Amino acid sequence: MKNLWYLKGRYFLHKFTEEGLRKALEHFERALEIEPNYAAAYAGIADAYTFLMEWGLVQPQEAQAKAKEAAEKALELDDSLAEAHASLALIHLVFEEAIEAGERELKRALELNPSYAPAHLYYAHVLQAQGRMEEALVESRKALELDPLFPFSHVGVGRMLQDMGRLEEAIEHYRRALELEPNFVIARFDLVRAKQLIGDWSGAEAEIKEALALDPKNLWAHMLYAYHLIYAGRREEGLAELEEALELEPELGQRTAEVGSLLCLARCYDRAIEQLEGRVALAPKDGLAHFSLGWAYLWKGEPEEALAAFERARATFAGGHRQLDLWATAGSGVAYARMGQRDRAVRVLQDLLGRPPQKDRSAAIARVYLHLGELEQAFRWLEKAFEDKDPWVRTIKAQPDFDGVRTHPRYLALLGKLGLGDPQS
Description:
Layout: H1 4-13, H2 18-34, H3 39-54, H4 60-77, H5 82-96, H6 99-112, H7 117-129, H8 133-146, H9 151-163, H10 167-180, H11 185-197, H12 201-214, H13 219-231, H14 235-248, H15 252-255, H16 258-265, H17 269-282, H18 287-300, H19 303-317, H20 322-338, H21 342-353, H22 359-371, H23 375-387, H24 409-418
């Protein structure tokens, strides 16, 4: 019979709210006070620290050390515990970008317990990162069948459907997740992104405002609103919303690369670089921080620094996340183009063109063509990205890449399809 404190911990963990994660950790620790050798509680602690880091509530080094110590203790106590193998897999995936190691542990977890829904969910994300979308959808649906009351199972299915361009179906799953947990801001984020992709910007904004009405001090909802406003071309309003988030949590920039990314899109390059340099100093393995830093340096006019940041980002993704490696590679191509090293930029472009088809590849290719001055090819690939429902396309109004082509007829036409209207608004 499972410890009641452990079961309560899993209940709160699966709410995926800040309060829920903190309560989950408390309950897992209480379970260990009663049963010091209870392996499942150690696995729960590992998961709690991993998710607390993802929320920016614990610094990466501390979270990784405590999560790994707990997962290894769980396996030491019971190597046949599926939850422990899944917890270690999550550590490999989140902290180390080690997709192969994560996949190996998840396969072991599923051998031990094919009914453990989170393992199917995590495995789906491994398959997604490898571009194996049909398999990923099957795994996500298995997680949902096994635990239909787990909100993240609906999000998992929704994300796979969205990645496959099936946006209306994805939106329905995000809504079901929110019915189960109205404060599940992750589901709200995904719902907003999907609505933006179908051109329903007013509907997306309504969803964000509903999240803020439920929890006015939710800094992640403020961050989502800041992104939304900046993507829509309302830069000053977006910056004001970011400032509101930073008032709620002054150390947010040290906890996540998102602040630097937003500042970069808002053209605050020096401030973005300061934030992101601070982030990589605290979390040198945060590939997203290196990646965002590359773009900040690029738009500031320092392509050599940008290239170095993109190379560091690629190193953290090596052998891991295919999508992020692709975008860091594209960033290097743009840096070479802006340095006047056309031959090297073309070699990067050939690398991208030779990779297996995936929807985000079209936008990456378009970006390099754009900086090589080949507008016909750039717009052809960008339009393909729109047809593929690539989430990046919805950001073009905010992207500095397009500052030189804002009046181009094909750019204006694409904005219209995206529901973004006048590019000067």
